[in-house]
Amino acid sequence: MDALTEDVVEHAHRDGRRVNAWTVANWEHAVAAQAAGADGVITDYPGVTDYPDATTLASPY
């Protein structure tokens, strides 16, 4: 998730592009993508994005 930063997302949005984070493996990375402003999160693991506000939850693992 190091490459997906707020600056990268803002630049893409200025160019009219949408940003999706692909193959997100855990909820911490899903939260980081959301915080950076990503438009979507794609994951191989159902449930990764099920938390209504994962920023307030402790890790389930």
Automatic annotation (TrEMBL):
This is GP-PDE domain-containing protein. One of its GO terms (molecular function) is phosphoric diester hydrolase activity. InterPro entries: GP_PDE_dom (IPR030395), PLC-like_Pdiesterase_TIM-brl (IPR017946). It comes from Halobacterium bonnevillei. Residues 1-53 form the GP-PDE domain. Signal peptide: none annotated. Pfam families: GDPD. GO terms for biological process: lipid metabolic process.
